[in-house]
């Protein structure tokens, strides 16, 4: 394992390993608890410039129909036009526009997040978790990050009032990224 102080060694192009990564979300439910979910199908690329981290780029595409909250009925509802409208907007995308190294192991990646046809620029804080060579000789890097969005900013407005006050689904959604990426030859 190495630390971010050896960033120049990390320079190169990487592909996100979907079987060892998680891109998920957390939403408030019924004003009293949280529901966690993830997208089971996604792909992404990262191009790391270790000598000039500000030149680092990233892009990710999530398949909306692969949403998984461990409840098939809820997943089906989330895929409808009430929420993510998978039929007309089959992907959620993020394409970086800038990168910044905050300190030795922390970075900020800004970019355009598109959900349901609406694009907003966001900044995601990421922590560098390390680098390792796996048993197959592949160089892997790990990053973890999160960012909170307001779903209504993306046209995701459906809700239901509760008898006790409040609403069924919170507006704030925490996006979670646990990324393992493999360096390409």
TrEMBL record:
Residues 13-182 form the Lipid/polyisoprenoid-binding YceI-like domain. SUPFAM superfamilies: YceI-like. Pfam families: YceI. InterPro entries: Lipid/polyisoprenoid-bd_YceI, TTHA0802/YceI-like_sf. Belongs to the UPF0312 family. This is Polyisoprenoid-binding protein. It comes from Lentzea pudingi.
């Amino acid at each position: 394992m190495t630390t971010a102080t050896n960033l120049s060694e990390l320079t190169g192009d990487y592909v996100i390993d979907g079987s060892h990564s998680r891109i998920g979300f957390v939403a408030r439910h019924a004003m009293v608890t949280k529901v966690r979910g993830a997208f089971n199908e996604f792909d992404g690329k990262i191009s790391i410039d270790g000598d000039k981290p500000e030149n680092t780029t990233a892009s990710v595409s999530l398949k909306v129909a692969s949403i998984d909250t461990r409840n098939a009925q809820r997943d089906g509802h989330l895929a409808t036009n009430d929420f993510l409208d998978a039929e007309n907007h089959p992907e959620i995308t993020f394409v970086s526009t800038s990168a910044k190294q905050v300190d030795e192991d922390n970075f900020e990646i800004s970019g355009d997040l598109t959900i349901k046809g609406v694009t907003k620029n966001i900044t995601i804080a990421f922590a560098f978790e390390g680098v390792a060579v796996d048993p197959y000789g592949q160089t892997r890097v790990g990053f973890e990050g999160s960012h909170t969005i307001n779903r209504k900013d993306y046209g995701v407005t459906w809700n239901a009032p509760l008898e006790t006050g409040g609403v069924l689904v919170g507006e704030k959604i925490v996006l979670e990224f646990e990324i393992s990426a493999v360096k390409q030859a």
